[in-house]
Write a structure and sequence with these properties.
Layout (H helix, E strand, L loop, with lengths): L12 H14 L3 H13 L2 H4 L23 H9 L4
Length: 84
C-alpha cells in the first residue's frame, strides 16, 4: 500500500528562497517546512483550537461611557483614526 505521494510543484524563486532560509533558521528540512504549512492549511479549524488574545486591558469599568462592544465602527475610529 502506498503511504506517500511524490509530486512536483512550481514555486516562484523569491518564495522558494525565503522558504529555504526559514527552514534553515528553524533547523528543519525544506520538506518538513512545506509539510507543516500544508498540514496547517488543510487541518480543520476546530482541531487547531480557537485563537485567544491576551487580556491587555487596564483600569476599571470596561469601555468608555457611551461606547458599546457592538459598536465596531466607532471603536475602529477611536483606535485607527484616519489611518485606515
Amino acid at each position: 500500500m502506498l503511504t506517500h505521494m511524490r509530486t512536483s510543484i512550481d514555486i516562484p524563486d523569491p518564495l522558494f528562497r525565503r522558504a529555504k532560509k526559514l527552514a534553515r533558521e528553524r533547523g528543519m528540512t525544506l520538506k518538513d517546512l512545506l509539510l507543516e504549512g500544508l498540514r496547517s492549511s488543510v487541518e480543520p479549524e476546530n482541531r487547531r483550537g480557537a485563537h485567544r488574545m491576551k487580556d491587555r486591558s487596564f483600569g476599571e469599568g470596561g469601555l468608555v461611557e457611551g461606547l458599546s462592544w457592538s459598536d465596531s465602527e466607532r471603536i475602529n475610529e477611536l483606535v485607527y483614526g484616519e489611518r485606515e
